[in-house]
Every structure is written in structure tokens, then in C-alpha cells.
Design a protein that fits this description.
- Strands 3-4-9-8-5-6-7 form a 7-stranded mixed beta sheet, with helices on both faces.
- The two termini are 36 Å apart.
- It has 9 helices and 9 strands.
- It is 39% helix and 18% strand.
- It folds into 2 domains: 2-76, no CATH class; 138-261, 3-Layer(aba) Sandwich (Rossmann fold).
- α3 runs parallel beside α5 (112-119) and α6 (149-158) crosses α7.
- α7 (180-195) links the parallel β6 and β7 (202-209).
- With 267 residues, it is of the alpha/beta class.
Length: 267
């Protein structure tokens, strides 16, 4: 329900926004000793239970929305079904719950959220389970100075339920793969682009010398004050290493923090 609560809060502050509730049910192989008729009943119960639960949620959500939501229920594997629906609808934002683990832990450790975030071309927000609606006041944006990251900062404001109170810290880790002077020149150019963006939030820029990207991000988040991590893996480079299992195991395993993934064109 964490993702649903956030979607409702965001939709209610965005005129004409539409919420789509999506549920996918998987029909697993039935027990070997079941007869054909029993198999049909077995699968039928799974579909019926899923549709019944979704209908109840739809009624609850519509009672809180100005614009009625749409409920979609399909058969299929979770990640594949979500990705197909996203490709069809091209949503502004897809919100996923992390079902008990932290947003980052679920994102990086093989969950449905992880597969969706790594394969989709559309923005995904992964929320850890909580009883309150997440509010983004202070975002840490791990950046490789890619074009498009500066406009994503303005998008974060659009996707926040408290858009007028947002600070974004752009952080780049110089891990020795490029000459520092070259990276600093990229930082200066990035700062100029970011400050030219209309409706940009309050921003700060950090350049960190550290041999391990994941450890640097973990340490910065560990200093406290941030309530969302933003990554924009637009190419198989610096940021892509945050998604490798060997790196992910060292990254924020026990932190319950929302993660916003904003993919873009390959660079």
C-alpha cells in the first residue's frame, strides 16, 4: 500500500493526473496429481482472488481521488507484465513498493523492482514499506554529468508530494578512471546547464575523490539528511557499476531509502 498511498497523494496535487493500478498474477505449475478440471479450478482461484483484491483496492483509491483510477489485471510474470504495460502506456512515473525490504536493497538484490528498474526506459520510483507517505526534501543525485541529468532534477520536483521544499545534491565520484581536470571541466559545464533549467529546485554540487563509487555514495548517505537516492543510468559506464551485484552487496544494504531511477538514451 506504500506505493498506492504515494500515487494518490501525488495525483491529488496534479490536475488531471491519472492513476493506473496494475496487478499481474502468475499461474504456477499445479501439483502433479491434480486432474485437468482441478487444475482449471486451481488457476481460476488465483485469478479470481487477484481480481477481487484489485477491485477492492480500486474502490478504496477512487474514494480518495478527484479523477477515477483505472485498474488493470493481467496474467504473467511480474516484471515482464509490468514492463509490457509500461511500454504500452509510456507513463510519466511508475511507482513500485518494495514489500518489506529497503528500497535500495530490493532494487539491487534481484527483486521484481530490480528487474523493472534495470530494463525499463521510463522513470521508476521504488518505495520501502512505511505507514506514511514519503516526502522528498533532500535528494542525493549520483551523477556522471550526463546531459539530461540536469532536467531530471526539475522532474523530481514534479514527482514530489512537497514540490516547493526540495533540495538536490548532485554528487560525482572521481574514481581514478578519468583525469581529475577533465572531470572538473565536465562538472563546470554541468553546473551551467543545471542552473539554466527552468523550474529547477535548489541545488548543490559535490565532487568527491574516492576509489570505490558505491562506498562513496554509501558514506555520503550515511551522513544523514537525505530522503531519496536518484540515479540515471543512461549508459554502461560509471553509474552502471551501481547495478552490478558485486558492487550492490556493499551499497546501502540496510538503509530504508526510496530510490528514483531515471533511465535515458544510451550515451
Amino acid at each position: 500500500m506504500t506505493a498506492v498511498r504515494y500515487a494518490v497523494a501525488l495525483a491529488n496535487r496534479t490536475p488531471q493526473a491519472k492513476v493506473v493500478l496494475f496487478a499481474a498474477y502468475h499461474l504456477p505449475p499445479p501439483p502433479a496429481d491434480l486432474a485437468f478440471a482441478a487444475i482449471e479450478a486451481y488457476h481460476g482461484r488465483i485469478e479470481s482472488d487477484t481480481r477481487k483484491a484489485l477491485a477492492g483496492l480500486e474502490n478504496t483509491v477512487n474514494a480518495q481521488l478527484a479523477v477515477p483510477c483505472e485498474a488493470v489485471c493481467v496474467a504473467g510474470l511480474g516484471a515482464d507484465a509490468i514492463l509490457a504495460e509500461m511500454e504500452s502506456r509510456k507513463p510519466d512515473l511508475t511507482i513500485l513498493g518494495s514489500h518489506g525490504a529497503s528500497g535500495i536493497e530490493r532494487l539491487f538484490f534481484g527483486s521484481v523492482s530490480s528487474e523493472v528498474a534495470q530494463r525499463t526506459a521510463y522513470p521508476v520510483l521504488v518505495l520501502p514499506t512505511t505507514d506514511r507517505v514519503a516526502e522528498f526534501h533532500n535528494a542525493l543525485f549520483a551523477t556522471d554529468f550526463q546531459e539530461g541529468d540536469e532536467t531530471t532534477a526539475a522532474d523530481i520536483r514534479d514527482w514530489s508530494v512537497v514540490p516547493d521544499d526540495l533540495h538536490v545534491t548532485f554528487m560525482h565520484v572521481a574514481d581514478g578512471k578519468e583525469a581529475t581536470l577533465h572531470e572538473r571541466a565536465h562538472l563546470e559545464a554541468f553546473q551551467q546547464r543545471a542552473r539554466a533549467v527552468e523550474n529547477a529546485p535548489d541545488m548543490a554540487f559535490e565532487f568527491v575523490r574516492y576509489g570505490d563509487v558505491a562506498e562513496a555514495v554509501e558514506q555520503r548517505l550515511g551522513e544523514g539528511g537525505f530522503d531519496v537516492l536518484v540515479v540515471a543510468p543512461r549508459h554502461r559506464g560509471w553509474l552502471s557499476r551501481l547495478f552490478e551485484p558485486s558492487v550492490a552487496q556493499t551499497l546501502l544494504k540496510h538503509m530504508a531509502l526510496p530510490v528514483l531511477v531515471c533511465p535515458g538514451a544510451e550515451g
